[in-house]
Design a protein that fits this description.
Elements lengths: L1 H7 L1 H17 L8 E5 L16 E2 L11 E5 L5 H6 L5 E6 L5 E4 L10 H14 L5 E5 L2 H7 L7 H9 L3 H6 L4 E4 L7 H11 L5 E4 L3 E6 L2 H22 L10 H10 L3
Parallel strand pairs: 7-8
Antiparallel strand pairs: 1-3, 1-6, 2-5, 3-4, 4-5, 6-9, 8-9
């Protein structure tokens, strides 16, 4: 029975495994760093298997995820292992009919410690940005380095600086980037702050001194968003290391892109 379930999820295991490979190859996934989650389409429904599992109460109801399955990387798993062997490293989380409890369909693979953030952000997305089914959290080196510099703790300054390093960052992330203060990993505090930040519109948020969280239709699109900001951050820090302040695209350049791409 469990096997039938896994076969229906094959394409999604493959998608997550592909993204995990990129994260490892980029060098953003030290030890078990980062996590990935993916909401499965409604057409792949809960099976009777869920009925036999222990129901774990959620801190707050998640009506947007009622009756849905969410795949998540397991806590403590290495991205390089997720890439090689997704079935043994991805947790299957089923949300109950009313969105008040969850069941672990893969009880031997406990989900990421960032489960509160993943579930609450997915709930927000299913209610507000329905085509966004994926979340990637990672520890991109240059982005995290910039978040240690006090004046980049300001979202507007951080976002403007990254937008101006290469045209693509603005073109593909016109909704912006938000920076949150350092908050305890895995806590409901960081989950609440993240939902609040995403409700303002950005596609990527930075958890200062920790990492990035991106939302997108699928996990590879979410990876791309972190890749864009990491590229911009690395260009900024490389130019800055010469001792000069990088010039960046001008406001007029950005306006030209906005008009050309109808952003
Ligand atoms: P997990 O192994 O629990 O997913 O934790 C990794 C991480 O990056 C926490 O922020
Ligand atoms: Zn992390």
């Amino acid at each position: 029975m469990e096997r039938t379930y896994h076969i229906e999820l094959q394409d999604f295991y493959a998608e997550i495994s592909d993204t995990a490979k990129h994260l490892w190859e980029k060098g953003w996934a030290e030890r078990n760093g980062g996590n990935i989650s993916r909401v499965i389409p409604k057409s792949i429904s809960q099976t009777p298997l869920a009925c036999t599992k222990e129901r774990i109460p959620l801190d707050e109801p998640l009506p947007g995820l009622a009756n849905r399955i969410v795949l998540m990387t397991g806590t403590g798993t290495r991205m390089r292992d997720v890439a090689k062997n997704p079935q043994d490293n991805i947790s299957i989380v089923a949300i109950s009919e009313e969105g008040k409890e969850y069941m672990l369909l893969s009880s031997d693979i406990p989900p990421t410690s960032e489960l509160p953030s993943h579930l609450r952000i997915h709930n927000f997305l299913q209610l507000n940005r329905k085509n966004h089914n994926a979340i990637v959290h990672s520890h991109p080196t240059n982005v995290v380095a910039m978040s240690h510099l006090k004046n980049f703790r300001d979202s507007r300054h951080f976002c403007n600086t990254l937008w101006k390093m290469i045209p693509e960052t603005y073109v593909f992330l016109p909704r912006g980037i938000a920076v949150l203060p350092y908050l305890m990993p895995g806590s409901s505090k960081v989950a609440d702050a993240s939902v609040n930040a995403f409700s303002q519109g950005p596609d990527v948020i930075i958890w200062a001194k920790h990492g990035a969280f991106a939302i997108a239709p699928d996990t590879n699109d979410a990876f791309d968003k972190i890749d864009l900001i990491e590229k911009s951050a690395s260009i900024y820090l490389a130019a800055k290391s010469t001792g000069e302040e990088p010039e960046g695209l001008s406001d007029e350049d950005i306006e030209e892109l906005r008009q050309y791409y109808n952003l």
